[in-house]
Each structure stands twice: as structure tokens, then as C-alpha cells.
Amino acid sequence: MTIQSSQTRDTEAPRGPAILLAAIRSVFLRVGVLPFFLVVSLIVFSLISNQFLSIQNLTNVARQSVYLVLVSLGQMLVLITGGFDLSVGTAIAMTSVVSALAMVALAPLMPDMIWLVILLGAGAGLGAALLIGCLNGLGIAQFDVSPFIMTLGVQSVGAGIALFLTGGVPVAGLPYDFGNFFGFGRVLGVPVPVMIALLAIVAIWLVMNRTKLGSHIYAVGGNVRAANLSGVNTKRVLFLAYVLCALLASLAGLLLTARVESGESNLGGTIALESIAACVIGGVSLRGGLGRVENVVLGAFFIVLLKNGMNIAQIGSYMQMVLLGSLLVLAVILDQFRYRMLVGES
Amino acid sequence: MDDTNPPLVEMTQISKEFPGVKALDGVDFMLQRGEVHVLFGENGAGKSTLISVLSGLYRPTSGSLRIDGEEVDLRSVHDAAKHGIGTVFQEFSLIPTLRVFENVYLGRELKRGPLTDRRAMVEGARTLFRDLGFEIDIRRRVSTLSRAEQQMVEIAKVFLAKAQVLILDEPTASLTEKETRKLFAFIAKAKADGVGIIYISHRIQEFREIADNISVLRDGRLIGTVSARDTSEKALVELMTGRAIDQIYPEIGRQSDGRTLMTLRQMHGAGFHGVDIDVRAGEVLGIAGLVGSGKSRIWRSVLGLQPIRSGTVTLNGRDVTHAATRHMLRGGVYYLPPDRKSEGLQLAATARENIKLSLLGRAGMAGRFGFVAPRRIKALADKIGERVGIASGHMGRIVSKLSGGNQQKVLFGKGFGEERDIYIFDEPTVGVDMGTRAALYRLIKEIAEAGKAVVVISSDLPEVMNLAHRLLVFSKGRVSAELTGAEIAEENVLKHFFAETGIQS
Question: Where residue B363 falls among pLDDT bands split at 50, 70, 90?
């Protein structure tokens, strides 16, 4: 009732600026801060350099953003349930180290079946991440540990194991075909990592919009107690969200390993922050219950675009960290406003 | 009655214990097909616990439950739904961020292969709402609906599950007269279809119209089951409280020439529009209204707990419109929040520590060099505990382990830490037993007769009507009536609950 009356007051005299303001408001409510950030960065960077908007550069950005897109999709699942996952970087590192070690160990045993070696190696990597996801899910869903502590703890555990397994030295000597196909290959002219990311996007979109699990994830984040009263198995939903998140991160980890052609325990160091930023900028509410796949993909794309733009503008990587962190906090502040306008006091 | 058919629901000797509390004590309850059975009783009498047992939320400590003659063990709401028990809880089980039809089908999604069939769900929800006569756009998000509309969604959700037992917990509490009519029409229809209905309400005047039988609960025990047709309202109230009405509410003396201590002028904010109120010394000002009428929120904004859009608040002649909460408290205002667990008490601290917290700023409590003087504070805290009637053995116990009544006494005690001029009690006796209520009312009487200003905001209509010298009724964020003396009567107040426009004062 209040909202209605204040709206009519705002739009009593439909002057130019007022209409613009109303349009901005409605875009903000529907999508979040992303369109505004995107427009500002496009303008700024294209003014700084005319290479920025070139097709070649944008294709490049698209290929680089594959990894962040995958992790952000997973991060989105847990954010919508009302939690978050700080251990996505660890899932990547574990995947990288375990899959590389497995491939290096298996390759001499069956030199004629190199694709089987790759398959088993990838399976081992996914299995390692599955373990991380189950650990998170168990702690958070079954034992009610706060997602912050649980994933922070698991992050340290996983990073420690990855370092222990490798002694901190990159695992070299991966099968040539692994890097050649999953890192640099193309199918129908489309880079393989981009292809895989596209498939993952479609799959997660279907899960969130067209399956029971998806609606239950939204429901758990919107109001756990109400979801429980509606007969939703909330523990199972939470558990699955963390498992899926770890598996998506693991997929990104495999593709990254193929790209760098070695198993590295320091892969994914900054990805937790970046994926949360991508989601929040893409309109996923930190309070849970709200968020759309397509906007998260754009959010991840935006972060990579921003880093690319900053590289072109010759902003050093230390300064980039400062900017990225600030942007995350700003996006969260704006998200609070949005949530209040959307759900808040009427 | 047909002897060959077992009753739809038969609960035998149901008991439910929580740590330290016996919420249900050997209750027998029976429901037939096509029967509307009212559960009646005070807050905390065990009504909610009883329906929680039947709807699978709680498992009873002892006792047996039969549905259609078959003994069942309900482990979850889902389980209960499978046995055809549908509950519309007072606290809605809706997800605000989801759309109406998604909420209706939550937990029962229609599927086509591995995917959910959204089109079928939209169609199904539309048909359901049309059959029920609810005019709500099923694609709207639940957060944008009014409370009454949310309740309709909640009811629709239960009807979708083809319930044979329908439990309605205070369904009319937030409905307008017209919406209530509609609800009663459904109840009649559902009854004719053989659905058994358990109906919880405080509104005695509704019973004769819809109910067949009334079971009265008090302190977790079944006092009796009576026929709705031949039991008078007065008899019901006496069954419920176990005593005559005039023994509960004290006669409070009114100071006729009380100074105006606080004024609110043309207050606008989230939930209230253009409200003027004077708060006078030596008078109990009652505030009544439905949930969401703004009756509570206006005081929260006076206290600086939510923003004021425009308007002025003065306290003893000083403008304190946007003053911070701590300044209002220091200025002599006490505010008793409606939810003692989330806002009122330090749950992990003892009763004494809770009261001590309110004493730290008091003059004369500081020892040498401004440090606190522990012994002096403890002595005063114990004195306050005694005044509000907390047994001395309870003062050292952790507050969350005390009963609701004792917790509320601690909360009252915090108000006596410093000398205050204005006491604002928001839901002063929610979830408190009858004996404690009478004690708390006596405290309110003492405060008012000592010349303080008292504001009582309450959803409990008899409470606010019996305590108030002057009663303001809130409706849709405005004051819809100001009643004094003999004007304070139930039908008068209810009439103004749904008023569309405010009066001019």
C-alpha cells in the first residue's frame, strides 16, 4: 500500500528526468546493478583504448571467462540457498593436482589407451572435488555449521592436501592430447572450453527453472522454515547445492589444468572472491532466494571484461585487487537497497 | 452418527513435554467427517502444540493418534499430508521470493519426464483459484501480496493436496469482514464434502455460526468439549480462564488532568500515514488493530527503530523526531518489544544479569572512579526482581530456561532500572499464562497510578479493552477511531478494524 502511494507521488508529473529515473529504478529492481556497471565500464575502457571493443579482444574475453562462469554457476546455487562457498578455489586446486597425478601415474601403464587415461584422470579429479562438496554439504546441512566457517575450514584442508600431495611443485608430463583438446581444441570452430561452458549453462538453467531441485533451491533460500513446512527436504537440497557447486568448480579446474598443461596447487587462488562478486553483481541476493542463471553468466563475463580492460589500461595487478574488492562491497551495498525495495517493508 | 465408521481423527491421551514444560497433558480429541471443531483457549494453553502434533511438526511424548481408525506415527508435515492432513499455519509457510503458483505447488511439483511442467502448474493453480473464488494473479510474487491474500494462497495450497482434515490456525485474524464471509462459505462447502475441520480462533462470536463442537484447553489440559449451539460466550470464557473476567483485569485509576508528555504530529513512515497521538501522564493509552495496521510500527519509529518519513515527535516539549533509540531511552521512555526472544532478552544470560544491564547507566550506581559497583547493582536488581514477582531462586537461572511468564517478568523488570516517564508495552503478555498475566496487569496499574504514562499495544482485544482508559484503533496505517470509557466495546472496536478512512482529530 505504501509503495503504491509513494509511486504515484513520484510519477505525478511525467517529466523527462522522472521517466528516466523510473526506468532506471525498474531495471535496477529487475536485474540489479549489472547493466549500470557494464555500461560504465564499456564507456570508460573504449575511451581509453580502441582495441577494447575489437572482435578479437571480446572473443578473447569470452574464452577467458569460461572458468569464472563455471565456478560462478556453482557459487550461485549455494548463494541462492542463502549460504556461500569459500572453498571453490580449493576444489579447483584439488581437481588439478589429483587429476594430473592420476594421469601421470596411469599413462605409463596403458600407453595405448591415452583417452582412457584422460577419462580416469578426470574422474579422479571430479571425485576429489565431490569429496569436498560432500564435506561442505554434510557440515552445513546435517550439522548446522555456518557456511562461512565450514567452507573456510574445508578451504584450508583442501589447500593443505593439494600442497602436501605435490610438495608445492607443479605436476608436469600430462598426456599431450589432454591439453591439446580440452585446453586449446575446437569443435565446429568453437573452442572446447567455451563449448563445455555453454553446455553447463544450459544444464544449470534447466535445473534452476525446470526441475524440482531448482524450485526447492529457491524455496530453501527464500525461507527455510516455510520450505520445510511445505514438505521440502531442506537438508538434502542444501547438501546437493554444495555438491553441485564443488563439481562445477571441479569442471573449471579440469579445463584450467588442460590449459596450463600441468597440475598446480595454486590454481583458483582468487576465484572465491571473483565468483561471489560475479553473482552479486549479476543480481543474486546474499540473503538467498533470488538470482538468475543468465544474469550470473553476464556477471562473470563482466568481471573478466573488467580485468581485461584494466590490463589494456595498464593498471597493475595489485591495483586490480583493490578495485575488485571495492566493487564487490559496493555491489553488496546496492543489493541491500534492492532487496529492501523488492521484498521489504510495504 | 454412524457407529460402523471410525472417527476421522482420534487422539488418545496425548502428552507433549519440552524441557521444563509440559505443553500437553493427556489430551483426548476426536474429529468426525464433516465436523467443524473449534479449539479454544488462552495463548500457551496448548492449542498450537496439539495441532503441531496432528500436522506432523512435533511427535508426542506419549499417547496415540489414529486417522480413519488406523494408528499412525507422523514424522513430518509431508507425512501428515500423505494422510490427508492439511494445515494452514498462523505463521505462513510461503516463500516470499517465489510466485504464487510456485508456492502452491512447492513440494508437489508437477513433472513431465525429469523436468517440471510449469505450464501445467500455471493452469492447475489458475483453475484452483477460480474454483475457490480467489482473485489473485497467480504469477505475482508472494512478497507483493497483502496478508489476507497470502492467507488465501496458503488455503489454496492445502486444498490442492486434497486434504480430508483441514486445520485452520486463527484464519480470520488478518481478514476483512468480506474475506471472512468468503472463508466461511468454503468451510461450509468443505464440510458438506465430508472434510473434517479443526478451527482455532479467539473470536467467540464466530463459533455459533460455523462450529459444531468446541474443545477448551487450559494449561495443556483438555477442560471439556461442549456443543457450540448450547454454550454461552460467557461460559466459554470462564472455562478458558478458569475464573471470572473481573478477577483478571484490575480497575486502574485515571489521573484526569494528566500532563501531555509526548506528542506525535502528522507522522508518516513505512506502515502509517498522518497519525496524531498525545500521550498523557497517569493514563493508560490502548492501541488496537490488526497485524500490519501500523499500530506497532509507529511506536518503533518513535523509538528510532525504523525511519520516520515526515512528522514531529516531542517529548516533554522538546523535538525528538529523529532521535537515536538510546537518546529516547535516556529521555525517560521505556519500550517493551513484542518479541522477547529476538529483541528483549540476552537469552544466554541469567535473569539477574538481564536486569542488571538496565541499571548500569543509572546515577548512584557508579562506584569509585566511575567503575560499576557490583554489590550495589546486584542488590538493586534483586529488589526489582522481587517487585516484578520473580522467585529469588530464578534470578540466577539462565533466562532461556525460564517459562514464558517469567521471561516476561524479567522484561518488565528491565523497565524499572531507571525512573521513566513513559512506558510503551508492545504485546505485554504474549505467550504468558493467566496467573502471570494478572500479575503483569497489576504492575501496569501501579505504574499508571504512580502518574506515569502507559501505552499498551496489543493484538489481544480483551486485554487492551480492559486496561485502556483511552483506546486508539488502527486501520491501514491510520487512526480509525478514538474511544473512551463506555465506547470501548468489542463490536465498536472491530467495526473500526476495517475502516477505510481515518477520522479527523
Answer: low
**CB contacts, 8 Å: A226 with chain B:** 92-95
The dihedral sign for the CA sequence A195, A199, A202, A205: negative
**Kindly report the CA angle at A99 between A96 and A105, in degrees rounded to 5?**
130
Counted residue by residue, chain B has a size of 505
Half-sphere exposure of B346 (CA within 13 A, CB side): 13
Three-state DSSP class for B418?
coil
pLDDT tens digit string along A103-133? 999 999 988 889 999 999 999 999 999 999 9
Q: Could you give phi then psi for residue A85, rounded to 5 degrees? A: -130, 110
Among the partner-chain residues A1, A5, A343, the one whose CB lies closest to the CB of B143 is A343
Q: Is B310 helix (H, G, I), strand (E, B) or coil?
A: strand
CB contact under 8 A, A219 and B143: no
Whole-angstrom distance, CA of residue A275 vs CA of residue A252: 12
CATH no. of A51-342:
1.10.3470
Hey, what's the cell of B325? Answer: 533509540
Angle at B160 between CA B154 and CA B164, to 5 degrees: 100
What is the Cα–Cα distance from B193 to B225, expressed in whole angstroms? 24
What are the structural domain ranges in chain A? 51-342
C-alpha span between B405 and A327 (Å, rounded): 49
Q: Which residues pair with B424 in a beta bridge?
A: B335, B455
Tell me if B399 sits within 8 A of B347, measured CB to CB: yes
Hey, which residues 137-176 in chain B have their CB within 8 Å of chain A?
143-144, 146, 157
Positive or negative, the CA dihedral B65, B69, B72, B77 is: negative
Those residues with Cβ within 8 angstroms of residue A150's Cβ, 6 or more apart along the chain or in another chain: A136, A139, A140
pLDDT per position as a tens digit, B479-501: 999 999 888 888 888 888 876 54
What is the pTM (predicted TM-score) of this model? 0.75
- Mapped onto helix, strand or coil, the DSSP state of residue B36 is strand
Segment B324-331 shows an average pLDDT of 86
Q: A68-82, A223-237, A303-317 — which one is most confidently predicted on average?
A: A68-82
Domains located in chain B, CATH noted: 9-247 (3.40.50.300), 259-332+423-505 (3.40.50.300), 341-419 (no CATH)
Residue B112 is given by DSSP the state E
Residues belonging to chain A with any Cβ–Cβ distance to chain B shorter than 8 Å: 1-2, 5, 206, 209-212, 214-216, 218-219, 221-223, 225-232, 289-290, 342-343, 345-346
- Number of helices (H), then strands (E), belonging to chain A: the values are 15, 2
Task: Tell me which chain B residues have a C-beta less than 8 angstroms from the C-beta of A209.
Answer: 118
- B418 Cβ neighbours under 8 A, 6+ residues apart: B358, B359, B361, B362
What residues pair up with B65 in beta bridges, in sequence order?
B11
Give ipTM to 2 decimals: 0.72
